[in-house]
């Protein structure tokens, strides 16, 4: 599988990110405005919440609001409604779900929280659009706090900004093909959060008819899954940043994961061959111990295709390549990439000694396709791919650009552009495509890798530094960086407000960004100079389109019922 191959080390990327972390309708604007006066309180049908006035802008914060609780009798299954009496003190956004952060294990099961940041201009008489962000982290790490996702740059544009936690690793993605643990609970947590926001955001001064859900990497993968499987109208717009279901691994055969509880129990020195006994043991294990056992055993957890049960919350029921029609056609879409998505993966694997250049094309093909015993076909395809990307260049040369292009094209570019086509064919009419290519002092992953701005372009997740007020980057506001912050946040919040990132030209954005159509693929390149282009990576994407047309029925992550189904 994709995530078992060291060269494709998404885990390394996200450990880099995580290590850096440490009954009335009263609205916020109807209370005394500003610090020094009474703290803001919002009353909703499900409870009252007392927040904090922000010190860095004209907004209030309601932090750590529980939208659900984990069932203590089934920590791997559906969550339960949260109930409380009195006023909830919404002042702490440091919670995170149990996870391995690389150097430490952290988190607790009391983690299903939302953080709501509300401009002072919001009220039930002046409801503002809502922008929700779902963090990435390969479904086993990440959290929603201000340390990374500071709201200051976004809320100044008069939108309510919301982040949420969801269960990760074994707690969020254990798939057992049973009624009690069918799988994808982390995605279902997200749905619970979206449902809570939809039902209650109006009491915070939010417009529940203008809800945008955004995500980066695994967060964008999550949003894409919701596009296909979510039947409720919980949002109106989506922003997918460097991720779709096709770009991410999935547990290909959830039957093979039925042994996961037994393996984890054994790692914890419990001997049993019975799934239910093992699950009962794990249910009582202290979360940090279970996360450590998951790490040490090498067992991984990802979204899976669920077995369907009556009266159960079935969700992901098809493989990514079988997903051809979105459930909601009236959703506005903004989707895009960075221009150097795979630099961190290739560079880190080279430095760690995991990268074997001579096998790179084979590894890519084996990751995305399953040729079974057809070695002759495999060798022919490998030769064709190698010739296209390397030409007459020698593999293992000092220049690693061919490897970066191959990895980015198969993992990000082609899956995302094929998803754009699927959306269009489903009837989604309002779609905008972007490419982020700015390299400055706030490029998120590049900064942690200590790569100079002059080397490479924008890496995977680098755009986060220009959307969010990341805690340790507060002083990095050169004129160029601030220009990108201003442009990015105007584009993102315009889209949340109007479904159009450039409703009219402005001083910051003196152009109109055309939407994608079936016969045209315009895109906006976001840099110090904004540039409109058409069909990004055209030659490489045309090559991969032909490749998938020819051998798409050999893809992984498609239905297998006797024979492989064609995409």
CATH evolutionary superfamily: Alpha/Beta hydrolase fold, catalytic domain
Q: Summarize model confidence as the mean pLDDT.
A: 89
Count the DSSP helices: 16
Radius of gyration: 23 Å
Number of strands: 18
Strand order within the widest sheet? 3-4-8-10-9-11-12-13-14-15-16
Q: How many structural domains does the protein architecture include?
A: 1
CATH level-3 fold name: Rossmann fold
What structural class do helix, strand and pairing data support? alpha/beta
Instruction: Provide the CATH top-level class.
Output: Alpha Beta
**Low-pLDDT segments:** 1-15, 18-35, 560-567
Largest pleated sheet? 11 strands, mixed
What percentage of amino acids are in beta strands? 15-25%
Terminal CA distance: 19 Å
Helix percentage range: 25-40%
Reported CATH architecture: 3-Layer(aba) Sandwich
Report the principal-axis shape. globular
